[in-house]
Amino acid sequence: MSNILAVLLFILLWIGPVIGGVFVAKKKNRSPNWFWLGIWPGLGLWVFIVFLFLKPLAICEHCKKKIPLDSRVCPYCANETSLPSKTEEEIDELKKNRKKKIIITVIIIILVFAIFCTFFFTFIGKTFKDCVPYKHSIELIENNKTIMDYLGSDYKQTGMIAGSLSTSGDSSGKATFSYKLKGKNGISRVYIDAFKENGIWNYTKINFYKEEQSPTVINLLAEE
Questions:
Q1: CA distance 57 to 40
Q2: What long-range pairs does 194-198 form, CB within 8 A, spacing at least 24?
Q3: Tens-digit pLDDT profile for residues 147-187
Q4: Cα-Cα end-to-end distance for the chain
């Protein structure tokens, strides 16, 4: 279920702005071709935001070319246009409404993006915590009296887990990552290097540092 939600949110932030942007572009008589840039994830969102700030264009009834909405004479065919004139009050009201719509849309985009990022990083963290190398390192830590005396029994993992984790079916995989533990004496860090072969995880490194940027290390593999 988590995988499905992550994919749906990704598609929403990737495809959603492109579809919405094409609609906005057509409504403003502007070319929607810019949204081909949406092929690259994330870029369509920025194009969409730019289009929100662009003023609408009108169509000249003589040459059918796109012209500024307040044009009285077409800059292409030099014919007078029949575009309806607006008072300064109407123009100011239109500008205010456009700004409100832009602000509301941008706020919605930011909120959706924030929700996506929160969910994504939560999902990534859960993926690491569910893997065998992470669980094995925690088991070694909790069986090490020196480390537990330093951390305290109420320690917890904190911050993002940084690195990579990949598996190919149940037979092979690779894990290289680090994570922080917050205990009674401060922040410690654990480093793990492992590879999975024939369905079995093999470890080349599980190191525990009591403090960040400290040369003092406890090799948990040597104490297994």
A1: 27
A2: 194/133, 196/167, 196/171, 196/172, 197/171, 197/172, 198/171, 198/172
A3: 999 999 899 999 889 999 988 878 899 999 999 999 999 99
A4: 36
Listed in sequence order, the residues at least 6 apart from 66 whose beta carbon sits closer than 8 Å to its beta carbon are 29, 30, 57, 58, 59, 60
Tokens for 220, please give them: 């948990």
Q: How many CB atoms are located within 10 Å of the residue 192 CB? A: 24
Q: Where are the beta strands (DSSP E) in 25-134?
A: 57-59, 66-68
For residue 83, what is the DSSP state? P
pLDDT on residue 107: 82
The helix-helix angle for 43-53 and 88-130 (nearest 10°) equals: 160
pTM attached to this predicted model? 0.57
Give the burial string for 123-138 (b: 16+ CB within 10 Å, else e).
eeeeebeebebbebbb
Could you tell me if 206 and 191 are in contact, meaning their C-beta atoms sit under 8 angstroms apart? Answer: yes
- The pLDDT tens digits of the residues spanning 121-138 come to 777 788 899 999 999 999
- Spatial CA neighbour of 151 closest among 161, 132, 138: 138
Read off the tokens for 181. 């533990």
Model confidence pLDDT, tens digit, residues 41-85: 777 777 888 887 888 888 888 898 888 877 788 888 988 887 666
- How far apart are alpha carbons 49 and 21 in whole angstroms? 8
Query: Helix (H, G, I), strand (E, B), or coil: what is residue 184?
Result: coil
